[in-house]
């Protein structure tokens, strides 16, 4: 029998908005129906292995403060076994249906790649057993191509072909493990695929090799029969000065340039949008409207700090906007809401991990209900439709159909009397949003 790491915590259940028990859901009722589908199926919540089990609340200015008793075994492989036990205990008690991992989260890097892969295979086998026992599924897997010093200049974009080969080997194993565990997707986060200075960088060569690495992964995906989605996760900077996967638009342009746009969709992270100077809603809306929104890393960043704070999501405006976009595109297919979020440095008690996830799940449940209310009432959409109604005219239809020329538009403009564009009614729309929340 595995050791129990959270003996004082029972399974978290829905108790309603009047509950004063901090270890209950106030708004997330997994089986409650919204637009004909359960909250559980709408939200597809997942916990990230790296933050929940491995990250000890370290930050750029200090080491870990949070106890991780499951990592204390002197044998790193035994510590990995214990950590897996703790993770699945946590997932079950939080009633989370999914989990996500990097390869080096779940198994240690040992002296040789062969030994590392053997340890990884063992832990993947144990994870497969736990998934079968619990019914919990893998949302996505990925490879850590950024922590080891070999990746200080990137993996696919490294100036060293040996590093490129090692990164490719890690992707191969991580992709095969994801396939074995029935993962719904596989995520590519460059981590260090960028540059610190252009003085030592061959820009087009690095971008081309990064695309080659992605193409190799696509080929291997087909070879092994993996049918899950491939995601790119945009991030603009930190740790590099500039990341090639800067934001959703940059990623999409890169994929189109290299003929990969049909192979990948986006895994959008809220905190990365903040670092890029974009709104979370913008990154989601851009991706959804281009048919490339696959999954979401649910967290938030601090706009006053220029690094990845990875805080748990509690802003109801953000969660409402996010769920509005997700409902508008018809909901998730392979993706979900993964809590890529870590506890604060002073959150060192075992309960804090549960409080954090409860808060994030309740915040997105409230966002789901508010977004569904907005859609049902239709008042915001009616005002937007009114603003664009001019495009239903003969002139608008001709422009959209490509039947207008500069000459014909010039002739029309000479005869027309245009005073101003339609009213935006931003304040009215903001009030309607507030009323729904």
TrEMBL record:
The organism's place on the tree of life at top rank: Bacteria
Keyword Magnesium applies: yes
GO biological process: D-xylose metabolic process
Single GO cellular component term: cytoplasm
Single Gene Ontology MF annotation: xylose isomerase activity
Reactions performed catalytically: alpha-D-xylose = alpha-D-xylulofuranose
Binding-site residues for Mg(2+) 1, renumbered to this chain: 233, 269, 297, 340
InterPro entries in the record: Xyl_isomerase-like_sf (IPR036237), Xylose_isom_bac (IPR013452), Xylose_isomerase (IPR001998)
UniProt: Mg(2+) 2 binding residues: 269, 272, 308, 310
Keyword Metal-binding set for record: yes
The enzyme's E.C. designation: 5.3.1.5
Compartments, as annotated in UniProt: Cytoplasm
First-tier enzyme category under EC: isomerase
Cofactor remark: Binds 2 magnesium ions per subunit.
Cofactor: Mg(2+)
Keyword terms: Carbohydrate metabolism, Cytoplasm, Isomerase, Magnesium, Metal-binding, Xylose metabolism
Residues annotated as the enzyme's active site: 102, 105
Oligomer status and interactors: Homotetramer.
PANTHER family attached to this UniProt entry: PTHR48408, XYLOSE ISOMERASE
Family membership noted in the UniProt record: Belongs to the xylose isomerase family.
Annotated protein name in UniProt: Xylose isomerase
Species of origin: Phycisphaera mikurensis (strain NBRC 102666 / KCTC 22515 / FYK2301M01)
Gene (name only): xylA
